[in-house]
Each structure stands twice: as C-alpha cells, then as structure tokens.
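Subgroup meeting minutes
Present: P.N., E.W., G.H.
Scribe: E.W.

1. P.N. recapped why we're keeping a running log of single-chain structure predictions: easier to compare across weeks, and new members can see raw inputs and outputs side by side.
2. G.H. added today's entry (717 aa).
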Amino acid sequence: MARAETASTRERRRRSSLAERHRPECFAEAIAHPDAVAFLKAEVRARRGRSVLLHGPQGCGKTVLGEIYARALLCREGEGEPCGKCEDCLDARKPGSPWSRFDAADLESNEQRVIANAIDARGYARDDWRVVSIDDAHRLSERAFAVLHTCLEPPPLEVTFILMSSEPERIPERVRHALRPVHVPRPSVAARRRILASICACPDEGLSCETAALEELAHEAPGGLRGLIGELEVLATSGSVTRAAVRALRGTDGPAALHGYVAAVAKNQGLAAQMAALNGWDRDPDVKVRGVESFLADLFGVDILHLDQTGRASALTLAERAELVAALRVCGARLGLAARPFFRAILQAWRPAAVPETAAGLLVRVSDFDELINGQAGLTLRADQPASLKPRRAYGSGRPTRRAQALGAVEMGQRYLSRDQVGQIWEAGSFLMQMHGQTFDARICLRYSAFADAAPKDVAAFVTALTHEMGMVVADRVAKTHGGRAPGDPDSFHWIYVHRQDETEGRGTDLIATLPVAAGDIEGWLRSDFVASKLRCACSPAAITVDRWPVGDEAAKVRRHWRLVRDLCGSLMPTAPPKASRDAATPDMLIDALKIEERLRRPLGERFTQRQYGPSRTLAPGARETAAAELPVLSALETGAWPHLDDGWELRDHTFRLAHRQRRVVGLAKIKSDWPEDDALSAARRSEQEQLFDAEWRAEGLRNRPGIPIHDRESSY
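Output recorded in log:
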C-alpha cells in the first residue's frame, strides 16, 4: 500500500533513521510475520477486534504489529488496513484519541488508575472503538494486573486491549486466559533478506549493495530488525555495502587469526603462540570469543557433519581445513572422544559469557582451554613432535583422563553431580544409620511447574522454610504422642534434598527424610497449611507427592534406605570413576560401583539455585566432624569396601556406639565417686584419672568396634 505523505511528513522521514523511514505502516508492509498478520487482519475485517497478547523475543516486531492493529481497528475507511488518510488515522496518535498507548516501564506508581481511566468509556465524546495498548506488559504491578483482569472479564464490547511482552510467563494466568495469544517469532533468514533487499531497492535511498553482503547480514543478525537495518545504514555511509565491510563491522574479518589460534591449540604449540595469533586480530575480547566459537562451529558443521553452510572458516582452502580438522581429531582421540562429541564439547567450552569479556578473562579462557585440550604435561612438547601421542590414562587402564571426563560432561549439554558431591550425599546416608540408628523412610517430590503462576520465585528459600517448619511440626507431634520429649527428638527429622530440572517435569526438588509414624499426615499439612500460607494458592496433586514406608523389619528398612539414597544419586556424572581400591573387582565407573539402576540415571539439568543439594544440619559435614571427636566416622565408600556399601553394618556400629558411650558415663561416674572435689589435690588426681580413662576408652572403642573391619583398611584417598 502506498503511503500518503505531506511535505512535513516527507521532511520528517528524510531526517529520521533508515529503520524509522522503513518502519511498516500497514499489514502489507509487515512481510516478516505472515501468520500473525493474517490473524490480525481477519479480526479487523470482521470488526471483532479481539484483545490480544503479542509475544515473542526482543526486537521481533511486536510493537510495530500492535500499532498497525490499533490504527486499523480505529480506521473506518480502510479494508483491513489503516488507510493513513482519514481523520481517524491522522488523529490516532494525538492526545485525547481513542487509542491509549503505554509502556509499562514508564508508568508511574499510580499505573492502575491510569489504566482504568484510559479504558473508561466515559472518557470519550463518541461511542466508537477504543484501543488500549501496553508495551512490556510483563512489567506491570500486581494491582495493575488486577485492574486489567476486572476490565477483561467479561470481554468488553468495542474496547480492544493489545498487550506486548517478551516474557509472557510473567503475566498472571488469569490475564493471559482473557487474551488471544499471538506469537510473533524472530524473523526468518529469508524474511530478513527480503526486508534488506526491499530497502536497498528503494529509489529514494540510492543504496548499492552486494548480494553476498545482504546474505551475510541476514544470516547472522545479532539483534532485532531495527538493529539489522541500523547496521545497513552504518555500512551505507561508507558507500557500497560489500561483504568485506559487513565482516569488518561485525568483527568476523579474522579467519587468518582464528585459523592460527586453533592450529596452535591443536598442535600444542604453547600459550605464547596461541595468544600471539589472537593478539594479531585487532578486536575486543568478547568479539574474539564469539569468533572462536563461530570458527569452530563452521568446521564442525561442514567438515564433521557435512552440512551445506558457510561461516568464518570459509576463507580457508580445502587443504588448510583438512589439516586443521585432522589435528583436532587427533586431540579428541587422545582424550578418548570421537569427533562429534569432541567438537560439541569444545563448542560448549567457547560459549560466550552473559557479560562482555575482558582482556584478563580472555587470557584465562585461553589458558583453561589449553589445559583442557593438552593438559599440563603437554606444554613442553615441541611443535614438530609427532601427533600420534599415546593416550594418557588415569585410575587404571581403560579409563578416560580427567580432561576427557570434563569434556564429556560439557558435551552432554547437561549438568551432573560430581563424584565428590555424590560422595557427600552417600556419606550423609551412612552417617544417619551410624550415628542416629535411623533409616530414610519417606520421599517428598516438589514439582514447581504444577504450581503454575504461584510457583516460588526463590526455590532455595522455599525449601529452607519447608524443612524448618516440617521439622518443628514433626517434633511437636512426636512429643505429644509420647507425652513429652521422645527419644531422639528434636533430631528425629533428618533429610537430604537435590534440585533438578528436566524437559518433561521442569524444575523440581526431590527430598528424602525420616518421618516417624507419630508425625501423622505430613502430606495434608504440606498442602493445606504450608503451601496455602507460603504461596497462597491451592495445591494440585502433581505439585507435591509424599511416599512413606514407616514399617518393616531391619533388612527391609536398610534396603529402602539405600534405594532412596540411590534415587538422589542418580544424577551422578556417568564418566566419574571410583577412587582407587585394592579390590580387583572394583567397577570402572562409580555409578556402577554404587549399583545405581539405569532407570534412576538422568541429568541434573540447568542450575536454578546457588546450592544444588544439601543435608539437614544433623547430617552435614560439621555434624560428622563433631561425632568423630568421640569415635571416628567410618566410610565404606571412602575405603572402597564395595561389597559392604549397603549391607547395614552401620546399624551394628550404632548399637556399639551407644553401649560404648554408656561405658564412658559409668566410668567417669566411678572416678568422680573415687576422687570427690574435697581439695585441690583430689581435683587434680581426678582430672588425671579422667584423661587416662578417656584415652583407654577411645582405644578400646577402636579395638572392639563390631561390623566390617573397614576402619582397619588403608584408605586409598
């Protein structure tokens, strides 16, 4: 549709930016979003004008579509489009028009009153269509959302709400359900190419553009359409828009430097050669990081996956590419990784950070990457040394090196619990039986996606409050049942939790605990009391599940205890080896040594809390250190006693610990009776006797301790 322009309009367009001059004014010009345009245009033609939520990433064109939709609804002359000539179109942006426009970020604290006044039908002289559009709608306050919900239910006649948001999940569900969602995706490469070509073809602009330059501009657009057109305008000021100019603008003009750097790493030429190659490219550090990632991605896509694409390595000859990829394949083989997982791993290692990189950060990244690929022992190798190096091994033959494990963990694209983290969880489970004589008998699963909009924003604080208040409830109920403080109370509630995130269930927390029978209905308390008070919402059945097994013989309790612990340990890194043992039957991987079933093995997922797992204070390392002052805390895992990991020896040890503790009480009482504090000499002799008794008592405990003799085995740590 041709634009109607007055002289003042033409002058204003001449002085505006290239992006403003070519900002779509009607649906016909919004060629990047055909599906969204088709729906909105149909609404205008049918005079329905339903309220919509335009959602999509930053810079995709939501605001432009929202403005066109608003003006088209108010225009009484156009056929599904704003005509741009009538009084309605000319007055649309003037104060007092039926179109109220807001940016949620700019609204003042009385935003709910502003919005209410904007949609008040009495605010207009004529009874006609009114439009309220709100950009960045997810930034509105709860009170403003309450006003919107009141106005949207039931749907108002001849009042259209247009909400635009890049984070629609932050808009309350009750408001989202009253709006028709319209997805505005990021424009495709083909759409971006057509937009750039149409601008260059405009006779008023007089731009000279190479087809290859437009192709590269459209293919790797870093921002939205406005930023893309802004880049075209910057290039146009220098005359002809060429591919070389595009690469210089975007910092993609360094294939020689990138080739030199990657070759220096692959051939183990040392940090000096690696930094010299990167320093020869006069770009900011964050541009260099993105350049290395893009260069490696091009090698991966073309030479490993055999895809038809072009990138930063396209300037290399076929011989140079083949030589470089062969050297990288040797690095992967030396680490025990095939070509695909190796390239995926190194691409993950060069993923750009969320904040701009500094020179110091780039140096650290280069050093870390060299250590990951070549290892400290390889820094002394000469550049001309043969590449067919023997694979370095650790933890016995056939096991991958530490660097291969690190690369493998990155390659998987998921986070896993490390060997040490799983060791802490397993030791906490062992300590529970050894020190407290109890076993885990309950599992509590929290699935935050099932809470919908009421899901806790701070999961760590939510779980901390849950365990604290549940501990008090358990202690109170147990005390009432036993007519006072029960044996072991208030320390009868012990727990360990692990936070996980996966594609099917989203964010969640798995918690195993000791819940005595006297604690009563904990699931009911969680749903009706705790969640209702903390989140002020009803709790769906899928949000919280509680499984309890409080009865059974000792053998059944031990089996159940370790099954629950193994469930928490299922996110152990699959390639983590066990620590060395003199036992020839030691499995190659710790996940097999712990006998974790295949069905339990799954990634931990992306981190969404600072602390991914944790035990109660009664099972924490500090509690184990305190207990060790009385008698050493034993560990079947630490000493590699694999056959005795889960046979329940800890309960026998607990019985001995209680009896041994009682012997100390009796012995000290006898010494106090023999040497009363009548005078200073008696007090001194009593103190001397107590010290001698404590030393003998401790030695006796080590000599006579029952169960498996793991404390006599030489630790291999």
